[in-house]
Amino acid sequence: xxxxxxxxxxxxxxxxxLFFVFVVSSVILVVISADFYGRNTSEIQAKGESRTxxxxxxxxxxxxxxxxxxxxxxxxxxxxxxxxxxxxxxDYYTYIYLHDGNLMELFISDGVDFSLxxxxxxxxxxxxxxxxxxxxxxxxxxxxxxxxRCHVTLGERSEHDE
Length: 162
Known about the structure:
By secondary structure, the protein is α+β, with helices and mostly antiparallel strands. The chain has one helix spanning 2-63; strands at 70-75, 78-86, 91-99, 102-109, 120-124, 127-132, 137-143, 149-155. It has 1 helix and 8 strands.
């Protein structure tokens, strides 16, 4: 009878232990998967953020590439990528620049007083450097909040009006 009782105990304990092993294995698998997903998502997001500002600058540069209307100007001690549009009544300027940790854009008519704080925030950005070489190439370098550095060099495709 004692042998029969221990056999019943084993039959009862075995499924319970097996169930707990299954639960523990499932929890470990979920924790490992969540950690892996979190790391990959953060890495993909970081790479995307660091390239977004340069993609924006490149797109704006290409959209406004007409007749040498692109230049880098200094306003309030800040380098601004400047696009000039000639209108019927007056000229219009688009300025893209870094102000208070944000990539900003300002579209304004010629002769209107403005401040860099008047611009529209495009995205947070830690650092932006703009240079124009003697051969007409523009180099933009960005560093985002995660300290990821990217750069792009662009040249005007249109002819200069001279």
